[in-house]
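Tutorial, part two.
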Amino acid sequence: DRAGFWQVEVVAELEGTGTQRATSAFEVLEEPALPAPGDEALPTRNHTLGAKGVPEEAIDSRAATEGEIPDPELHRWTIAEAFRQHVPIVVIFATPVYCVSRFCGPVTEAVEELAARYDDRAAFIHIEIWRDFNAQPQVVNQAAADWLYRNDDLTEPWLYTIGTDGVIVDRWASVFDPAEVAAWLDDLPPLP
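Running the prediction step on this input gives:
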């Protein structure tokens, strides 16, 4: 309920190993470091399919390993265009190939599955983190930097839901429950 350094302790009974304990410290800031629910979302002009001068792997890192963008339906909209048309948005910031946490591929695929089921309810957008991962120094896509780069730190993956008014409804770091996002989508009217 207030800013500062906090610690959490988890105690669990695990079959075969008995009681296990783990602790971790974390900092709570006065204000969120990244865009948060209730904030105005940034009207970003992220890379889309066919963007001039943009390599496919800067649109989706899997293009570098698979030879094509595997989920084109996630690369048709910019956040700015969805804002202009007052379309709800589900946006995943992730780098499926270069992800440190290894959650990026699975969460991007989960958003792709939601897009297949709810393409009549929202704009589904994947924003690749890296414009050029192999450059020295590495180059971050501007859209990812605008949303996620703070104090020389970049975290990913992040999933955001954004309402027709351009206000962030919710966000999740690393993992999310697709059923929770589906419940939000179920409550939206079909797009005109």
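Residues 181 and 191 are 17 Å apart (CA to CA). In part three we will examine how such features are distributed along the chain.
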